[in-house]
Write a structure and sequence with these properties.
By secondary structure, this protein is an alpha+beta fold. The protein contains 13 helices and 16 strands. Strands 1, 2, 3, 4, 5 and 6 form a six-stranded antiparallel β-sheet that branches. A five-stranded antiparallel β-sheet has the order 8-7-11-10-9. It has a five-stranded mixed β-sheet with strand order 13-14-12-15-16, sandwiched between helices. Helix 13 links the parallel strand 15 and strand 16. Helix 1 packs across helix 2. It is elongated and about 155 Å long. The C terminus is likely disordered.
């Protein structure tokens, strides 16, 4: 396959894909907004459900914490009452008996009441097996005696009942300052769990009561096996504690990611009067399972609609657009290969393509005339590309073309060819002193002088680069070339363009002249190098002067300097 054929096939493929892509885009523009709107509604519903769940969790945590607080409050009231009874009846020796008789049967979460002496020994209790136990090492006993206030312990394992429990303690000294006994109550965790089972019926919700060390005190029935065990993920308790510190209050909500990567919405509330916290959490995946499935279904439907739109656009495009394009492409290829009689048959095309076919036929009839106009325009562009806009002379490209032409002509006619290399003296200083705009003006005036002298002597002037010019004189010997070079030098000096940084106080030029009779084996560069060497010599001689470099004909295979 040729490069041209490969290029045409590639262009054809790009065209087909472009049309199909536009058809698919049109189909998607019609369908996708409806599907996207549905997805947006589902996402909004998801966000609302998350917000609703967060509020429910927060309320659940607060209400459950309040219910637990009610249990603690009733325990505190019983302890205060028992302390008062014991204090009032202890001098009669009946304090213990009265306290046992006063235990209310409608408070099943109080397992037992006991009186501890100042030595930490249980003096009397509603549970006879407890009497005589030494509880002096218990922190809740020490705290009650030291601070004379009601206190709730963290999770402990009861020595008497051999069951997990929490203890409430109240010092009798808070009622009667002289008495150092402490009234304690063992709270049954089972009843606290039963209270929690009445709340939190949302799927995936976990409700736990934990002490300050993270040990679970109470849980719903399905999590009863966790009671007495620490939280599996201790970072949850740390996150709750940090949020309490940052917010400055004992309740709040956080988003938490467990160690196994599950995201959970967590609400917490402290149980007033204790160091326990009620923690309510729900697995986000379970909570949002239904809405997430709906969203994924919407995405799949969107993908399916997109695929159907693609297939429909592909088939429709093939029949209604691609085949007519192939017909027109074939006509174009034939025309491009030189078959100017190629025309598109309008009868084989859909009516939408008829204007295109007519335009193609019109193009074919006008192409020959346009091609001629294009060739003329290219010739004009070629001329423009060879002109230096500052000096108005030919540029280096134009000079090179003319040199090749004159060189071949001189070989054919066995005539001489002279070249002058002309450089404006101290031009960099001129630019630095007067600015680049004045420098361009100066080059323009020098160009005008060279153009006039070239016309007078059937020569060709060009700007070679920067401040350097050249003047080509066909069929002129060395003597005539030197005369013309002197005319150039004098004409520029006569311009009297001010140049205060030059030793001549005006703009001058140095000219290097070389003349040669070209031969078949002699390169054109010899003439350029000779003229350039002569120009260099002119500059070394003080500038504003003309120096000749003579070239011996190539047949002698040598070069000699003159001057």
């Amino acid at each position: 396959m040729s490069i041209a054929s490969f290029g045409r096939n590639t262009l054809k493929l790009k065209t087909l894909w472009g049309i199909r892509a536009r058809l698919v885009l049109l189909a998607l523009i019609l369908v996708v907004p409806l599907m996207v709107d549905r997805v947006r509604l589902l996402e909004d519903s998801r966000a609302k459900q998350v917000s609703l769940a967060a509020n429910e969790l927060s309320e659940l945590a607060q209400h459950t914490a309040d219910a637990q607080r009610e249990i603690i409050s009733t325990v505190q009231a019983v302890l205060q009452s028992s302390a008062y009874i014991y204090s009032a009846a202890s001098h009669q020796g009946r304090g213990c008996a009265i306290m046992r008789a006063s235990l209310r049967v409608d408070l099943p979460w109080i397992r037992s009441l006991s009186i501890i002496g100042k030595d930490g020994i249980v003096r009397c209790s509603t549970e006879q097996s407890v009497v005589g136990l030494d509880l002096s090492d218990r922190n809740y006993f020490k705290h009650a005696r030291e601070f004379h206030e009601f206190v709730i312990s963290d999770y402990i394992f009861s020595r008497a009942a051999n069951l997990p429990t929490i203890m409430a303690a109240y010092p009798v000294s808070a009622i009667h300052g002289g008495e150092e006994a402490v009234v304690i109550a063992a709270i049954d965790l089972k009843w606290m769990s039963q209270l929690m089972s009445k709340r939190g019926d949302r799927a995936g919700v976990s409700v736990l009561l934990v002490d300050s060390k993270g040990v679970i005190l109470a849980a719903r029935p399905e999590n009863a096996g966790l009671i007495g065990h620490p939280l599996k993920d201790t970072s949850l308790l740390e996150a709750v504690t940090l949020r309490e510190i940052n917010q400055g209050r004992e309740s709040g909500s956080i988003m938490f990611e467990s160690a196994n990567g599950d995201k959970q919405a967590v609400s917490f509330a402290g149980v007033k009067g204790t160091r326990a916290r009620l923690i309510v959490s729900v697995n986000e995946a379970k909570m949002l399972g239904d809405i997430d499935r709906d969203i994924w279904t919407a995405y799949l439907q969107l993908a399916l609609v997109g695929i159907l739109a693609l297939l429909g656009a592909w088939i429709a495009g093939e029949r209604l657009i691609i085949r007519p394009i192939e017909v027109l492409t074939d006509m174009t290829n034939r025309f491009g290969e030189g078959d100017l009689s190629a025309r598109a048959s309008k009868a084989a095309l859909p009516r939408e393509f008829v204007p295109l076919a007519e335009a193609f036929n019109e193009m074919a009839s006008q192409l020959s005339e346009r091609e001629r106009e294009m060739l003329a325009a290219n010739d004009r562009l070629t001329v423009i590309a060879s002109i230096d806009m500052i000096s108005g002379l030919a540029n280096r490209r134009g000079f090179q073309s003319r040199l090749e032409f004159e060189w071949m002509k001189a070989i054919q006619t066995d005539t001489t060819l002279s070249l002058m290399m002309i450089d404006v003296d101290y031009f960099k200083l001129f630019n630095d002193t007067y600015g680049h705009l004045e420098g361009d003006t100066c080059l323009g005036r020098v160009g005008e002088v060279l153009a006039a002298i070239a016309d007078q002597n059937a020569g060709f002037a060009a700007r070679y680069g920067g401040e350097e010019f050249c003047l080509l004189l066909p069929a002129r010997d060395a003597a005539r070339a030197m005369q013309v070079a002197e005319i150039v030098r004098a004409a520029v000096e006569k311009l009297a363009v001010p140049h205060r940084t030059s030793s001549y106080q005006s703009v001058t030029v140095s000219v290097g002249v070389a003349t040669v009779t070209p031969g078949d084996s002699q390169p054109q560069d010899d003439l350029l190098e000779a003229a350039d060497a002569a120009l260099y010599a002119a500059k070394r001689q003080g500038r504003n002067t003309v120096v000749e470099h003579a070239l011996v004909p190539a047949a002698k295979q040598q070069m000699s300097l003159a001057g």
